[in-house]
Inverse folding.
């Protein structure tokens, strides 16, 4: 599904990612973990086409998309749900969802995904005519993920989906990620909640100062002493 080879990206000439390579097979959940400021968000933004590359290549479904503009990557099935959700708080729940759907011309698919959102999260259905800004943090995250699904992704990238979500809803967020995978969608996940992320991930990558320093199955990384000490406080 995705092959990222040796990508680099910077902010005003200051490198944020120096050497990141990763791959995702179709249908996998893959987690990127690492401390604050190590380049996880920048990696997702570079893959989405929002941050320019200084080097390296990105292949999506066998095609080189390194120079393809961000909006075209969405049409090709690569969708990012950004950190902090970036909803339109004054638009209604349904309007936010429909904005996710404008890249697809298939009305039947749009309707089906809308129904999935309302069936899975009854609160979104009940409050579809209310402003998105009135939802709780966790509900807004669910809305943001559903808005991403409305673009009919093959690969959905989630940046810190449990950020700002009340503990009782965090479990629901991770269950939803698994539901998304069951729909045949590949998931690339960046999370501060390292334990939860590696629990549901098939594989994971650890990023430190802009480089991939470790990779392995979710279970192997969870059992790794360095990972446990650095990120799990064990
Ligand atoms: N808009 C920006 N302008 C300048 N520097 C930035 C910008 N965004 C990120 N950086 C820098 O790039 C580096 C990588 O940041 P990035 O946000 O990718 O890390 P992260 O691992 O996702 O951390 P966090 O979880 O805190 O977002 C950091 O040194 C950060 O300060």
């Amino acid at each position: 599904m995705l092959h990222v080879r040796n990508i680099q990206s910077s902010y005003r000439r200051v490198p944020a990612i120096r050497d990141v390579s990763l791959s995702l097979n179709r249908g996998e959940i893959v987690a990127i973990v690492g401390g604050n400021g190590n380049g996880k968000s920048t990696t997702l933004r570079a893959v989405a086409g929002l941050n320019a590359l200084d080097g390296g290549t990105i292949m999506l479904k066998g095609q080189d998309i390194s120079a393809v503009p961000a909006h075209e990557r969405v049409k090709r099935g690569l969708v990012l749900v950004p950190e902090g959700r970036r909803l339109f708080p004054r638009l209604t729940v349904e309007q936010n969802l429909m904005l996710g759907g404008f890249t697809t011309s298939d009305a039947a698919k749009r309707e089906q995904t809308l129904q999935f959102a309302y069936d899975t999260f009854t609160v979104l259905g009940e409050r579809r005519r209310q402003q998105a800004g009135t939802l709780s943090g966790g509900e807004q995250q669910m809305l943001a993920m559903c808005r991403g699904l409305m673009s009919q992704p093959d690969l959905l990238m989630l940046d810190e989906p449990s950020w700002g979500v009340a503990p009782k809803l965090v479990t629901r967020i991770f269950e939803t990620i698994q539901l998304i995978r069951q729909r045949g969608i590949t998931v690339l996940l960046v999370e501060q909640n390292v334990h939860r992320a590696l629990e549901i991930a098939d594989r994971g990558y650890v990023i430190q100062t802009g480089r991939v320093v470790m990779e392995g199955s979710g279970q192997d990384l969870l059992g790794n002493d360095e990972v446990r000490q650095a990120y799990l406080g064990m």
Q: What stands out?
A: The CA atoms of residues 136 and 165 lie 8 Å apart. The chain has a mean pLDDT of 94.
